[in-house]
Amino acid sequence: AASPRAAEMLATEVFNVARAKSKRESSAEEDRRTNLHAELRGFEDGTLESHLQEMRAVAKRTAANRSSMLRDVERGVPTEVAAINGAVVREARKLGVSVPYNELVA
């Protein structure tokens, strides 16, 4: 399992990519063009710390859950980590944003 600090670093990088994407595409029509931007729109409504606080709260509420990724690892089947973090890395490269933690796990 990822440490809380590692999870926060990954989340911080996603936040930074979302902010860069938002700044780059300012018109409403461009905002609607990609699903990724639509999914990341929520990052505009608050600060990084507020998003990290919410992430910590969700982690506490769901600490006893067994995630689908954990079950995949236990069964020896591929997880979606490469797809999820790979999407962050690809978008970051387009925007010129550094995401070393996401690159490491992708």
Nearest-angstrom radius of gyration? 15 Å
Main structural class: mainly alpha
Q: What is the strand content?
A: under 5%
Q: Which word captures the global form?
A: flat
Distance between the termini: 15 Å
Largest sheet: none
Low-confidence stretches: none
Instruction: Please tally the helical runs, counting DSSP H or I stretches of 4 or more residues.
Output: 7
Let me know the average pLDDT: 80
Q: How many strands appear in the DSSP assignment?
A: 0
Order of helices and strands: HHHHHHH
Name the helicity range.
55-70%
Question: Could you characterize the architecture of this molecule?
Answer:
This protein is an all-alpha fold and 106 residues long. The protein has helices at 4-24, 28-31, 35-40, 48-61, 68-75, 81-95, 100-105. Helix 1 (4-24) packs across helix 4 and helix 1 (4-24) crosses helix 6 (81-95). The mean pLDDT is 80.
Throw out a few tags for this protein:
flat, 70% helix, 7 helices, 106 residues, single chain, mainly alpha
